[in-house]
Amino acid sequence: MAVFSRSRRAVLAGGAVVALAGVAARSSAGRTPAAAAHASTPAASEDGSSPAVAADGSTAGGGPADGGRMSDESVPHARTFMAWPTRRIWGADTRRVRADIARIARTIADYEPVTLLAGPLEAAAARRAVGSRVHVLVQPVDDLWLRDTGPVFIDTDRGQAGVDFHFNGWGGKQQHRRDSRVAAAVLRHTGVRRISAPLTAEGGSLEVDGRGTLLATESSLVNENRNPGKSRDRIERELKALLGVSKVIWVEGLKGADITDFHIDALARFARPGTVVMSSPAEGAPDDKWRRAYQQARHIIERSTDAEGRKLRVVDIPEADPGKAGVTSPDFLGSYVNYYVVNGAVILPRFGDTEADDRAAATVGELYPGRDIRQVDIGTLATGGGGIHCATQQQPEQRAVAR
Predict the structure, then answer these.
(1) Three-state SS at 315
(2) Residues 279, 319: contact at Cβ < 8 Å?
(3) Cβ atoms of 38 and 226 closer than 8 Å
(4) pLDDT at 160
(5) Closest by alpha carbon to 124, among 80, 182, 177, 84?
(6) pLDDT over 90, % of the chain
(7) Nearest CA to 169 among 311, 37, 62, 279?
(8) How far is CA 215 from CA 42, 223, 259, 310, in A?
C-alpha cells in the first residue's frame, strides 16, 4: 500500500540521510539531518498558565490564551496557499511537477483565490505557468509541500490566528531552512497573529472534523525526531489546547517507513462529522506493512466514537492500481483520499486507472453532495510521494469561536 512511502521516502541510518527507491534522492541527497531541529520549539507550560505573548505578536506555550478551534476543511475559505517546486529538489522532473502544480492552482482558482509562493528567481516563470488569476508571492521555498510547511489557521475569540508547528524536515530527515520559515512568512503576509506551538508537527499529520475530534498517527507525532521526551498524553494535551479539540483518535502508524512517519492525510479523512473516508489497498496489492497499517487503523477507527459520541462510519476508496495507471515506478502514491476541499468543489486526483478514477469520483461525489468534483492529473506529483492535499493549505474565512 502506498502511503507516502514513495520517492519522498527517506530513513535515518547511522545519523545519515539515506534516499530510497526511484528518485528518492530529490528529497534528501547530499543533505544532513537537522541536528538542532528541536531547539526552536518552545517548551510547553507545565503549570497550566496562560502562554506568553512575544513582541512580534506570537504566542508561545500550550495554546492561545483566548482559546481557539481548527475548522474542518469544508468551511468557506478565504484563499489557498501553495508553493512552486524548485529544481534543487526535483531535478529532471522539475518541468513536469511544475505543470502538475500549475494545473492544480488553476483548477482551485475557479473556486477561490490562490496564493503561490515562489523564490525571487522563479516567480516570473511561476506567473507565466499559473496565469493571472493566481497571485504569486515572492518568498524563498525549498519545496512544494505547503500542507506541512505552512501555518495551521484557527479561529479564536480575538479573531483568526495561525499556528506555526516549527517544520523541521519531517523529523530532521532533510534540511529545509527556507521551508522552516514559510509559516511565519505566510502569517506576516496575511497579517494574521502567529502562535508558536509548543510541539513540532506538520499539517498533514492533523485531521479534524471541526466538531472537537482529531485523527492522528502516533508515529508522526509521538516521535523523538519531532518531540523528544514527550509522552502521548502530553502531546495530546497540547494539541487539544492549540486546536480546540476534546478527543484525539490515535492510530499506530509506522515510524521510519517513510519520510513523514506515516501522515494521516493520505490514509483517513473526515468527510463530515461521523464519517471517515479511508484509502484502502488496490486489489491485488501485497500483504505488506502498508496493508497491515491500514488494517490496524481501520480496526481502531471503526470501533471509535467522535467527540460528540457518534460511532464512526468508515467509507473505503481503493487506491489506483499502478499497472492500470501505466506507472512502473515503485514510488507511486495512488491515494484518492489526499483530495482537497475548496469552496464549492472537491479537487481529486486522476491517475489513469479509469475504473478506480471513476469509482473514486462517484464515491467522493456522494460524500460531498452539492460540490463539483474536479479531477486533476498529477502523475509526477504522485511519483514524488504526495498529492493534492499535501501541496495545499487553506486559510478559512475569519470567524469568532462560538462560546
Answers:
(1) strand
(2) yes
(3) yes
(4) 97
(5) 84
(6) 74
(7) 37
(8) 24, 16, 19, 14
Number of residues written out for the chain: 403
Q: Which of 15-29, 131-145, 225-239 has the lowest mean pLDDT?
A: 15-29
Question: How many of the other CB atoms lie within 10 Å of CB of 106?
Answer: 16
Strands 345-350 and 340-342, bridge-based pairing: antiparallel
pLDDT reading at 350 higher than 70: yes
Q: How far apart are CA 229 and CA 241, in angstroms?
A: 19
CB atoms within 10 A of CB 16: 11
Provide the total of helices (H) and of strands (E) in the chain, helices listed first: 11, 20
Q: Are 19 and 27 in contact (CB under 8 A)?
A: yes
The dihedral through the CA atoms of 134, 6, 186, 158 has a sign that is: positive
Residue corresponding to grid cell 501522515: 263
Instruction: Please report the domains of the chain, with CATH numbers, ordered by start residue.
Output: 10-35+64-396 (3.75.10.10)
Q: What does the block give as the cell for 246? A: 476534546
Q: At what angle do helices 94-108 and 123-130 cross, to 10 degrees?
A: 50
Direct distance between the N- and C-terminal alpha carbons of the chain, in angstroms, rounded to an integer: 42
| Kind plus residue range of the DSSP H or E element containing 216 | strand 213-217
How far, in whole angstroms, is CA 84 from its chain's centroid?
Answer: 16
Residues annotated as catalytic (active site), given as ranges: 390
Across 207-326, the runs of DSSP E, i.e. the strands, are 207-208, 213-217, 247-251, 268-272, 275-280, 313-318
C-alpha cell at 270: 473526515
| pTM of model > 0.85 | yes
CB atoms within 10 A of CB 120: 9
Helices (H), 62-202: 87-90, 94-108, 123-130, 146-149, 169-172, 182-190
Give the DSSP H or E segment for 301.
Answer: helix 289-301
Question: Which residue pairs, CB below 8 angstroms and at least 24 apart, start in 49-56?
Answer: 51/195, 54/196, 56/194
- 102-140 per-position pLDDT tens digit: 999 999 999 999 999 999 999 999 999 999 999 999 999
From the CA atom positions of the chain, what is the Rg in Å? 19
Instruction: Determine contact, residues 383/23, Cβ cutoff 8 Å.
Output: yes
Residue whose entry in the numeric block shows the C-alpha cell 506538520: 202
Candidates 315, 276, 268, 271; CA nearest to 293 is: 268
Cell of 1: 500500500
Q: Residue 284: left if φ>0, alpha if ψ -120 to 50, beta else—which one? A: left
